[in-house]
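Hello,

Our lab assistant flagged a job as stuck in the queue for most of the afternoon. It eventually completed. Since we weren't sure the result was trustworthy after the delay, we are filing this so someone can double-check. Below is the sequence as submitted and the structure that was eventually returned. Let us know if re-running is recommended.
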Amino acid sequence: MTAPARPILQLLVSTQPGGGPQHVLALSTFLRARGWRCLVAGPRDGAVFERFAASGVEAVALETDRVRASTLAHIVRLVRDRDVGLIHSHGKGAGLYGRLVARALGVPAVHTFHGLHFEAYGAARRAAYLALERWLARWTAVVINVSRAQEAEGLALRLFERRQSRVVVNGVDVAPLTATALDRADARAALGLPPTGPVVGCAARFDPVKRLGLLLRAVTRVSDAALRVVLIGRGTEERRLRALAVELGLGQRAVFAGEVLDAARFFRAFDVYVAPSAKEGMPLAVLEAMALGVPVLASDIPAHRELLGTTSPGLVADTPDAVANALSALLADDETRRALGAEQRTRARSEFDAGQMLSAVAAIYGEVLGL
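-- returned structure --
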């Protein structure tokens, strides 16, 4: 495919380590290597922002996570000054700005939903959000969904029409993932963990939808008092989670590792990776753990079923007791744990390839731009 003459603008709502920003980093780097010009704009609120520049992709700091007339004006100027040919938005705020500007300037818009999260809203706010998304969909050439389950939910909510939707599941680039992953001993040393003893972990945004408190409670119900839990990330829930760890008496058994770029390099420190989320789009960290052969236990939700398979023994009910029982069984049986990790590694590497994901998005751009 011939690269377009005009640049692509990627609008983000955050540059904190996570699936959306990491996806845009991989996409922009992939396109740049093929002669495309890419420009990224979003808040300078996380470590991924600097990674864009290190990868040769220009990043512009804009407060797309807040609704401000000045931000809208800045994006209008940016699109005009750089002669942007397509706007691709990721996340709620970015989706609002991107599609308003695209409509105003006659530039085609693509929007990716990296999860549909609105359940915590009150009734009025929820109705307003859904109505806004339906309105913005009229100005969107293509809506990208990161899982089939998400597409089905979006269609049921009438957030877009079927003709607009494309499903592009997240993928993992195995070679750099395995090359940068530390071995068990080094990963544990880097996290300040003892070289022996059971460890479970999770890398996620500290947000209520991730239900990290459920994991902390589950750990206290596992009979092995040596079991440690590592949480990698940060967010609005951090203070509550730290307080809960104290309340549960976990002490040094609970390790808060902070925000870490390329967190997967530490995953081999874990005997089991646990993902207790209430809802997901298509979680990249779970996929990375699978690709590294770290056995995954995940809440039985649609996105996790797509990743692990609908009959996977890695799917568990979303209660502390269910997670604790599954953890206890895996930690007590090395052979079963290794077999689960091997099965999940094969599935991740064979069915979720980053190259296919990135090529699919580039093909969507070509479709929209008529290349």
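-- support follow-up --
The delay was a queue issue, not a problem with the job. The result is valid. The domain at 8-171+353-369 is CATH 3.40.50.2000 (Rossmann fold). The mean pLDDT is 94.
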